[in-house]
Amino acid sequence: MTDRSPSTEELRATIDRMEQRLGICNSNHTNELLGHYWALVAQFKIDLADEHDQLLSRQGALMLIDAADPGEADE
Fold first, then answer.
1. Domain with 36 in it
2. What are the Cα distances from residue 12, in Å, to 9, 20, 21, 55?
3. Is the residue at 21 inside a domain?
4. Is 57 exposed, middle or buried (0-12, 13-18, 19+ CB in 10 A)?
5. Tell me: the pLDDT tens digits for 19-35?
6. Residue 75's pLDDT band (cuts 50, 70, 90)
7. Is residue 70 over pLDDT 90?
8. Which pairs count as long-range contacts for 31-37, CB under 8 Å and 24+ apart, including other chains?
9. Is residue 14 included in any domain, yes or no?
10. CA within 13 Å, CB half, 17
11. Which terminus of the chain has fewer CB atoms gathered within 10 Å of its CB, N or C?
């Protein structure tokens, strides 16, 4: 296990990739969850002053969406 947190650039790249992959999904469930995700993104900007913390939160939310509808985003 590593103690290193991903860099801001690594987080941005991962988030961009996940947003793109989940955004083209045909699942109504995933699309509904993405609507909530975008609301959370706005709230993260208000609640979290540090960009790195915002990105970590966004990545966690995207991972949850991906886990909630496995396989749908891979199509």
1. 28-75
2. 5, 12, 14, 7
3. no
4. middle
5. 999 999 889 999 999 99
6. very low
7. no
8. 33/65, 33/68, 33/69, 34/65, 37/61, 37/62, 37/65
9. no
10. 8
11. N
What is the rounded CA–CA span in Å between residue 33 and residue 75?
Answer: 17
Global pTM? 0.86
Specify the pLDDT at position 6.
92
The structure tokens 């996940």 sit at 18
| 38 assigned to some structural domain | yes
> Whose structure tokens read 């991962």?
14
Helix axes 51-68, 8-23, angle to 10 degrees: 30
